[in-house]
C-alpha cells in the first residue's frame, strides 16, 4: 500500500501575519505541484497565509477550534468560521491543548466531529507521556485516545492522525524509527479493527522533534505517512529540506 507523504507544519504561537506571509512567499519556490504540504499558522494569520499560498500546493489549516458551531464562548473560534476562511484541516487534541488547556478525549472527539460537519479534515493528535511509557501504558493510551477521539467518526477516510509521543515534542528527543513504526502499526491495527480496510489508506503522521537529520529514516518506515513538525517548520530552510526528503521517498 503506498500512501502519499504529508508534511505538516504547526507554528504554535509563533509568527505574526507579516512573518507568515513572508515565510510562504519564500517557501513557494521550493514546492512542486504533487507535494502534500500543510501549514497551521495562528488564527490571525490564516487569511494572509491563504492569500500567499494561492497558486501553490500549500494547504492552510488551523491549530484548534471550539466544538460548538457558535455561542457565548469568549475568545473561541468555530469550525464554520474556519471553513469560511478556507481552512482545509484543523489540529484536534494536540498535546499542548490536552495538558495546558485541559482538553480531554471527549472534548477532542466533539472537536473532530465539529470539524467534519464543516467539511474540514481533523488532524487528530495522540500520544503518551514519558510517565505513561515508563509505566508500560503507551499502547493502552494510544488505543484509548483513538477509540474515544474517533467515537463520532463514521468515515475514517475524512480523518488524518498524528502520533506524537509527548516526551518527544519540542524536546529534541525523537522516537527511534523502530519505536515510532511500532506505535503506528499498532494504531493502524486498532483502526482496522474498528473501521476495516479503510485504515490502510489512512495518513498516519509522526510528530515530535522531526528535523532534517532524522526525517529520512522516520519517513522511510512503512506505517509513517508523513510528519507533523513544530520547531523545524519555523525556518524555510529546514521545512523545505524535509519536504524535499519526503518527495524523494514518495
Ligand atoms: P516539535 O513539535 O517538532 O517542535 O517537536 C511537534 C508538534 O508539537 O506538533
Fill in the keyword field for this structure:
250 residues, alpha/beta
List the helices and strands and how they pair.
Elements: E1 6-10, H1 17-27, E2 36-40, H2 46-53, E3 59-62, H3 79-84, E4 89-92, H4 95-100, H5 105-117, E5 121-126, H6 130-134, H7 138-149, E6 160-163, H8 177-195, E7 204-207, H9 212-219, E8 226-229, H10 236-249
Parallel strand pairs: 1-2, 1-8, 2-3, 3-4, 4-5, 5-6, 6-7, 7-8
Helix pairs in contact: 1-2, 1-10, 7-8, 9-10
Bound molecules: 2-phosphoglycolic acid.
Structure commentary:
This protein has 250 residues and is an alpha/beta fold. Helix content is 41%, strand content 14%. The protein contains ten helices and eight strands. The chain has helices at 17-27, 46-53, 79-84, 95-100, 105-117, 130-134, 138-149, 177-195, 212-219, 236-249, and strands at residues 6-10, 36-40, 59-62, 89-92, 121-126, 160-163, 204-207, 226-229. Strands 1-2-3-4-5-6-7-8 form an eight-stranded parallel barrel, surrounded by six helices. The longest helix has 19 residues, at 177-195. The chain starts with 5 loop residues before the first strand and ends with a helix. The model has no long low-confidence stretch (mean pLDDT 97). The structure holds 2-phosphoglycolic acid. 2-phosphoglycolic acid binds at residues 10, 164, 169-170, 207-210, 228-232.
Amino acid at each position: 500500500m503506498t500512501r502519499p507523504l504529508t508534511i505538516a507544519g504547526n507554528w504554535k504561537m509563533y509568527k505574526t501575519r507579516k512573518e507568515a506571509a513572508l515565510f510562504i512567499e519564500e517557501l513557494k519556490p521550493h514546492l512542486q505541484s504533487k507535494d502534500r504540504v500543510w501549514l497551521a499558522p495562528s488564527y490571525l494569520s490564516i487569511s494572509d497565509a491563504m492569500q500567499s499560498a494561492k497558486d501553490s500546493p500549500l494547504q492552510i489549516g488551523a491549530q484548534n477550534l471550539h466544538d460548538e458551531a457558535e455561542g457565548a464562548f469568549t475568545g473561541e473560534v468555530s469550525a464554520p468560521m474556519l471553513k469560511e476562511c478556507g481552512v482545509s484541516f484543523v489540529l484536534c487534541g494536540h498535546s499542548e491543548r490536552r495538558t495546558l488547556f485541559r482538553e480531554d478525549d471527549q472534548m477532542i472527539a466533539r472537536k473532530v466531529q465539529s470539524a467534519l460537519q464543516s467539511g474540514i479534515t481533523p488532524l487528530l493528535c495522540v500520544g503518551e507521556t514519558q510517565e505513561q511509557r515508563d509505566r508500560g501504558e503507551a499502547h493502552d493510551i494510544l488505543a484509548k485516545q483513538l477509540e474515544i477521539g474517533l467515537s463520532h467518526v463514521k468515515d475514517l477516510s475524512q480523518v488524518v492522525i498524528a502520533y506524537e509521543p509527548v516526551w518527544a515534542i519540542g524536546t529534541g528527543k525523537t522516537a527511534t524509527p523502530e519505536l515510532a513504526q511500532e506505535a503506528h502499526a499498532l494504531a493502524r491495527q486498532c483502526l482496522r479493527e474498528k473501521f476495516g480496510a479503510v485504515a490502510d489508506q489512512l495518513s498516519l503522521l509522526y510528530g515530535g522533534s522531526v528535523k532534517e537529520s532524522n526525517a529520512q529514516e522516520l519517513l522511510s518506515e512503512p506505517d509513517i505517512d508523513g510528519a507533523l513538525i513544530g520547531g523545524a517548520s519555523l525556518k524555510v530552510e529546514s521545512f523545505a529540506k524535509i519536504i524535499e526528503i519526503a518527495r524523494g521517498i514518495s
